[in-house]
Amino acid sequence: MDLPSSHARSELILGGQKSGKSGRAETLARDWLAASAQRDAVLIATGQAHDEEMAERIARHRRERALRVPGMATVEEPLRLASCIDGLASPTTLLVVDCLTLWVVNWLMPAVARDEADPVAAFEAQADALIAALGRCAGPAVLVSNEIGLGVIPMGRDVRAYVDTLGTLNQRLARACERVTLMTAGLPLCLKGQT
Known about the structure:
The protein is of the alpha/beta class. The protein is built from 7 helices and 7 strands.
């Protein structure tokens, strides 16, 4: 796979809310598409519209993303990221997963927990599968996740467990990815790999 210098085989983009994570992923996708008419880019969206505000947020993101990166397709997959990556991967396709923060919520929230005997074990199996899929992905992959471990320790047990789970996933993916970028105020800081 011939990647432009701005692309790594795999990149984890971390940052806080509105830090520029998705914007960086979109820029990478736009650059990927601009390099060759033979290339594709697919956004794998993990968000789910559980209320009216989230439904409008998702619709707004779709509209705005279509203007910023018109050639990028969108696939919605809230749970089975590994099988989605396996199904979409090709040497000429850049995959963008946005975002892992919501993916973890989707697995650990009560609605999913009712369908799984042990939702934590089910999530761990999916996390293992995601890392394996990333390793065998035929083309470049960009993963977006929130860095939520910089604040105060949450008061509730479930929220602390969520923060721990996401932090552990981010660490595992940082080890697996060729490049790790931290976004702050729209500015990228390369933590691993080359810029």
